[in-house]
Each structure stands twice: as C-alpha cells, then as structure tokens.
Amino acid sequence: MILQLEGVSKNFGGLRALSDVTFDLPEGQILGLIGPNGAGKTTLFNCISGVYTPTEGRVIFRGQEVTGHKPYDMAKAGMARTHQIVRPLNELTVRENVIVGSCFGREGNGLTAAGRIADEVLKFVGLDGRRDQLAGSLNVGQKKRLEMARALAARPYLLLLDEVLAGLNPSEIGHMVEIVRNIRDQGVTIIMIEHVMKAVMSVSDRLVVLDYGRQIAEGTPQVVANDPQVIEAYLGDPDLALRLMRDQARSQEST
Amino acid sequence: MNSPQDSSVVGSAPKVSWREALSQNAGAYVGLILPLIIIALLTIWPTVTGKDITRESIFTIMLSIALASSLNILLGYTGYVSFGHVVFFGLGGYVGFYLMAVQGWSLWPAMAMGGLAAGLLAFLLGKAILRLRGGYFALATIGVNEAMRAFINNFEPFGGPVGMTLNFQVYRDYGGAAQALRMTFYILAAITFIVILVSYFVRMSKFGLGLLAIREDEDAAEVMGVVAPSAKTWAYVLSAIFPGILGVLFFFKNGSIEPVPAFRLNFSIEMIVMVMLGGQGTVLGPILGGIGYQSLRGYLLTSPLFKNIQLAVAGVLLLVIVLFVPAGVVGWLRNRFPVLRRILQ
Description:
The complex is a heterodimer.
Chain A: E1 3-12, E2 15-25, E3 30-34, H1 41-49, E4 56-61, E5 64-65, H2 71-77, E6 79-81, H3 94-104, H4 111-124, H5 140-153, E7 158-162, H6 170-185, E8 189-193, H7 197-203, E9 206-211, E10 214-219, H8 221-225, H9 228-235, H10 238-254
Parallel strand pairs in A: 3-8, 3-9, 6-7, 7-8
Antiparallel strand pairs in A: 1-2, 1-4, 4-5, 9-10
Helix pairs in contact in A: 3-4, 3-5, 4-5, 9-10
Chain B: H1 18-28, H2 30-49, H3 52-78, H4 86-101, H5 107-129, H6 135-153, E1 164-165, H7 177-204, H8 206-216, H9 218-223, H10 228-254, E2 256-257, H11 259-262, H12 265-278, H13 284-302, H14 310-324, H15 328-336
Antiparallel strand pairs in B: 1-2
Helix pairs in contact in B: 2-3, 2-7, 3-7, 3-10, 3-12, 3-13, 4-5, 4-10, 5-10, 7-8, 7-10, 8-10, 12-13, 12-14, 12-15, 13-15
C-alpha cells in the first residue's frame, strides 16, 4: 500500500469538514475522488499533503506515519500535487517553475540536472514551446499543464491531481486524460479529484465518494455509479439519476 | 503537440558531462560582467581624479550599494520587506566599536564580530518573526529596530545615550588618520565586491531559486518541497551579516558611535528606495539604485530649495516607483528589451 488513511477527520472550528475517511491505495492505481462541491475533497488533499494537520486519524505514506508532517516533508518523501486554483510562480519562467519542482522534490536535483528534467517534462505535457515565457502570461489550460509539469518534475511516487480537467475544452480534456494515463503507466500512483464524470469514470481504477465530509461509497466505477446513496448525493432524485448513470455506463462499455 | 509516449518521466536523472556544465556556467557569468565593471570603476575613480573629496562621495555610494545589495537578498529575492534593516548596521557597528574602543581589538576581528553579531541577531529574529507575512513582518522589523535603539540607549557598557568614541591613537596602528581613511575606502570596495559576488551566486543557485519561489508563492513553494522556514532564515542571516560588518567599518571611520545615528530608521527606508529604484530581485539593480539615489541626494542636499526636505523627495520617489515602475530600472529594461536579459541579471 502506498497510502493508507485511517479515520482522518478535520474540523474547522465547529465545522466538521471531514469525518472518518478511511481507505487504502495500492501502488500503481488511479483513485478518483469525487463528490459534490464542498464535500471536502480538497480538504482531504490538504490533509494528505501536509497543508493541514488532521484533527483525528492517521495518514500513512509508504509505510511511514506522516500525520502532521509539513508540506515540504511530504514533497521530499515523494508526494506531489497540483492545485485546483492554479498557483504559478508568476514572475519566473515556465521552465524555472518546473525546475523548482525538480530541485526541491523527491530527488532534490541540482540545477543542471533539474533543467534537463524540466525540458523533458515540458515536452511531455506539451509546453516546450513556452518554456522561456513568464508563467503569469500563460492561459488557464496552460497553467494547469504547468502545475502538472511541476508536480511530475519532482518524480513523485504519489501524485495528487486537484481538478486538472476543470475549465479545459473537450480536446484539452482528451489530451490531459491521455497524459494522466501515461503517468500511471510509468508507475506513478495517482489520486485525482474530478468533476468531469465521464473522464474520471473512464480513467480511474477505483473511486471514493465524499459527501458533507463523509465517505459514502468506495469501489470500482461501475459499483459506485450504481450506488443509490451516491446518486442521491449528486442529483437528489435517485431514480432519474440511476437511469442517467446507467446510460453513461452503457455508452462507456461500448467504447 | 507532442505525443506523450516519446518521453519517459520517471527515468533517472540525466547525466551531465563536465564540458557541457562548464560551457553553460560560462554563459551564466555574463550577468556578472556589468556589476563588476561598475564596482571596479568606482574603486579606481578616486585614484584617477586624485581628490579626497571624490573618495568621500564614492565611499557613501559604495556603502549604499553594499547595503542595498544585502537588503536585496531578503527584499528582492525572498520578497520580505524589512523596514528595520539598519538594526544590523547599528548592532554590528556597536559590537565592533565596543571591541575596538574598550577591548582594544584591531579592525579586522572587530569587523568579523560585528558581522557575526548581526547574523546571530537575524538568525534568532528569523525564528521568531519570519513566520509573519507581508505587512506584519515589516512592522515587526521596525519594532525590532526601535527596541534595539532603546536598549542600547540604556546599556551602560556601550556608553548609553552618549555612545562611545575611538581614541585618536587607534589610527596610528594603521599609519595615521589619513592613511586609515584611505584604507577604509579600499576595505569597503573589497566588501562591496564580495557582496555583489554573494548576491550573484545566490541569485543563480538552487538556494536562490527556492527564495524566488517563496517570493512568488510561499505556500505553493512549500508544497513543491522548498523548506521555507529555514530558507527564509538563511536569507535573512545572509542579508544581515554584511550590514553588520559595514557598520563596524563605517563607525571606525567615523570615530564615534551614538544610538541615534546607528539606528536611524530613515536609513532603512533609503535602502529600500535604492533597491526599488534600481530593480528589486536583480544583481545590478541595487548598484544602479545606490548610485542613482546617492547622486540625487547629493544634488538635493546642495540645492537651496530641497536641502531641508531631501527625505520627502525620497518618499515621493518611492511612491512613484511603486506606482509606475515597480520592477525598477533594471526590471523595466529587462521587460522592455528581452535581448538584454542575459546581461542584466
């Protein structure tokens, strides 16, 4: 198991943003983390990546307990993430942004080696034409790919992707999904938060569903898609929703 | 768009031949040429003109350059505004001066101790106040400076409010007062040279890249693995050591030290103006800023209209820079003429 969560909870004052989230993530899988807005998905990412310390519960990464460790400790241990709201280092070039990822991530490369890796990774995400541009001048789709490139340059064991598809047009989504699959094929374990259902259903090996901070379902996309509790959380009307989801599942099976 | 299959992302780090590394590094030194030429010119200028008064004005300019470049490591690279940076100049000066005037130390070890004291203060402060962000940190630095001045003002070993003076005999060890004055100029030139080198190598290093990442977005930098608390502390220490050393040199040349001139807040603000004027976050910026600001100040001090309000002019200048050219002269040139980027670091 690359990551184990045991009863992870997070309170903000009186608000219980996460309660008792427990799951195991085997190496080499893509885990989709879904749920309605405000369900606590990004909060869970923050608890895993060290931005927040969980109020209760334990986070175990590659066999080591890492609950309450700092974000930079997690980065060095081999975890990398992207942000839902992109956070480029605006006044640095695209290439420098990626070099930061490589220099300070798991491998802790020197500048020259990091430069090589940056060029490689930028090519991989299709940003090599913009390497000397300031990161602040990219459009949103490009910034999302930059986030991805920075995370990849760290050569992580576990990659946390927070809505990398949101705000992209259909062809960009296709390209990004392709990138995600490729990363997994190279042996990196991935957790992705996603709202674009079709994409996350097709790419994930397993799904975890959150609603109001509680984990309401877990399993393969097929199982989760047919879970009445999930459907209710998303759409309110289980019967109508069930029909819609079945249609989608069927159309996927045929492709 | 490239097909994603053609490159591996998880392979091992590529090997770099030393020859390539060398040629890349040779290119990287281009940005050092202009700063070093300017410092060299400033250093030989008094010899060329042969006037002592030239040497005195260049002493002021060079001191400004060295202080502004030190501050730039924190302000320009790391993005933390220190309004009380003069505290390191004052404390270093006091520690060194005490060692020379009371303990009879010579200038060199006194300068080393001044730098050490300033660095130590920055290290301890860094642990305490560098967790504050933005305006809160800036406010805290002012508080530190004022507290230090109040403390020194009441600290009898350092002479309290009266301060200390050097016995004139001290200069005899250095070949008399005139010779000592000349010597301080060349020591200053050497320190300025070192400050510029440090500033440049920090800017070009992995450590410096981490600082720039902190400046741009500290939380994102931490998520990428930059150990922000320690990087910030070391940047702060580095930016404090040279002002500490320079404080000793300045007050040695001055012959006396008092709390008010040692911890003059205006001086901190002038340092910020110089960094902003020339271009924060660049190596060349504080050099141009120091020369530009001190020339302007020299002009203002001698003009009947402005001589009493030269600090007001500094304030207005800062306002204009922040509003219209926040990147400073060098930043503006870099943005305007991307061709020059390699030369203007």
